[in-house]
Every structure is written in C-alpha cells, then in structure tokens.
Amino acid sequence: MVCIITSAKYAKARHSGESRNPCVWEWMPDQVRHGGIDAFGCRFNNRTNAATPEGRPRAILRQLRVIQAIFLVAAAVLVFTNASAADLALPPVNLGETSFQDGIAFPGWLVEETFIYYDANSFTDSKGKDIPGSNRLTAMSAVTHVAWISSFRLLGGFYGAEVLLPLADLDVDTDFGPNGRERGVGDLIVGPFFIQWSDSKLFGMPYFHRFNLDFVLPTGEYRQNSSVNVGSNIYTFNPYYAFTLIPTDRLEVSARLHYLWCSENSDPFVGLGADNTQPGQAFHANFAASYEILKGLRLGLNGYFLQQFTDDQVDGDDQARSKERVLGIGPGLKYTYERLSLYLNTYHEAAAENRPEGFRGIFRLSAAF
Questions:
Q1: CATH classification at residue 176
Q2: pLDDT tens digits for 223-243?
Q3: Residue 133, in any domain of the structure
Q4: What is the pTM of this model?
C-alpha cells in the first residue's frame, strides 16, 4: 500500500531554529514488492515471487518507508512538513515483506495478499537521536500481488512478470508538524520482466535465484497542497536480486537485494516553496534463515536494512543530512499446506536515522497455481 505524510526528517532543525526540510516517510508492506513468488514488497515499496516448491503449480522523517516498504504498499507513503528548506522522504519500499525461501519459484501463477501493521512512537533525526515531543505513527496496509512465470527459457532461466497494488491507512500525530489520517489506493507496482533460475547449484548446494526489474508508477491520489498523500507523484525504479541457498534438507538461507532510484517531482508539496524535488538513491535488503521443524512448518529469523547513499535534492541542490537508514530484525514462521503458504514475520527496528523507529508485523497468504 502507499501512504504519504508530512516530513519529520528535519524536525530537529525545526526545534533548534535552523531551517527545516520536509521529508517523506513511506511504509510499504514488504509484500508489496516481493519476489520469489513468495511475494515481496513501510518505507512504504518490491517483490516478486512465483510458485514455491511446496505450492508449486519515512514515515515522518522521510518516509508498504510507510509499507518495508506488505503489507501495505508496495505502494507508497510520503510525508512532508512545512519548512523553508526541504528534505524529502524516500518512497515506500519492500522492508521485510519477503522473507523465507524468497528465491524459490517455478513456472506458474502466484496470487498473494500481504497485510502490514506498523507502529512507531519514536522519530529520529540525522544523527539517530529521538526528536523531542509526543510523536506517533500508525500504519496499516494491504497489498495484492499477482505474479506469473512462464515456461519460456531465457539466459538459462524462466521469464516472468508481476503486478502489485497497495491500499493504506496512515494515522500520524506529532508535535513537530505532521498530523492527520489518510486512506486510499497507493501507486501501482509493475514488474514487466524478471528471470527465475530454479535449477542452479552453488558449491554443490541447491541455489534458486531471481533478477527482477520493478517499476512504481504514480497512479495513487496526489494533491500538491496536501502534506499527506496516498500517491508519491514520482516514478521509481526498484530492481532486485533474490536468492535462496539450501545447505541441508531442512535449512535455507534467503535474501533480496534492492536498488532504489526516484524521478523528480515537478509538483512538490506547496509548503516547500520549491519547483521540484527528488529523493536520493538507496540500497535496501531483506534477509532470512529458517529451519523446518515439522513437515510444512518453518521457524526462523528475518530482517531488513535500508541505507540511502545520495542526498535528496530540492531545486537541484543537495540537502545535507537527508540520508535515511533503518535496521529491522525479529522472528518469523512459514507454514505450507499443498499450494497454500502462510507467513508471519515481526520486526523491531533500530539504528534509524531520519525516519521513525518502531515495530512492524507482516502477515502474508499466498497461493501458487
């Protein structure tokens, strides 16, 4: 899903009397951009998954980052705060929405729904320190994901495509600026091309991997005079590489590595007093490891990490101290019965910068045909 809020990224500057910059916080369900036909996905957006073996045939600082990016967004949430200088939040990305056996997929169809709950009562500045005051963000999202893997071989793998559509409900209450609630349909995520390799070996061990080219289109509702929007009003390129390595019959290790690039917004929030803005580039990844304790039941650890590596830009000028970062980690499980798979993942965030820091819970139900 997708949600956009007024930025809190520069709340610290605001309190110190310095010029403030607004940031966008997006939270996207990890499952909004997923992969592996295991779905992907509150920064609020990446993913792609196809049939699993068992089921074969800113939240305010800059921010289903409202909707790490399923269960809400694969979509997008942006937050902007009134300020003379502006700082943007990254659009929604897949943060924790995909996890166990993410790289495993075979020819066929995958339909899944991801539900994401995110709650944060702490917002951090560029140094990772809490922004003073009573500040809270609660976001819920749901992302519908449909993926298809053909039997057509390309570069040794199978060609596939996917589409994700998020819905979001974002409630923000802060002392430093952003306040309000927004609900609606987020930006559409389209993956017209990916290749799934399902019969590879790495050091003699089964190795499933996938390369996906995901694009986020600005189809969500967006109003230039509103600090809270469901749409981001920008195009996003968010390709990823996912893999699953199987050391033993019961043990698996998976990860999904993403690159994020955002286009320029020529109609930014009027409170910024700018002609155009552009969020910086970032790297984000989901990682997980699980062990099958009973037939069809897996328990494990899952996590995600996001690091922005170039500054946001306002009217072509780099905005200092605008990079976002966050780490999330926690336990999770996966249960598979015939063609149905159920995922439950929880994450506690830490080391956040220019973003909210809180708890994320994701429930995903997928069916492979």
A1: 2.40.160.40
A2: 888 777 778 999 999 999 999
A3: yes
A4: 0.79
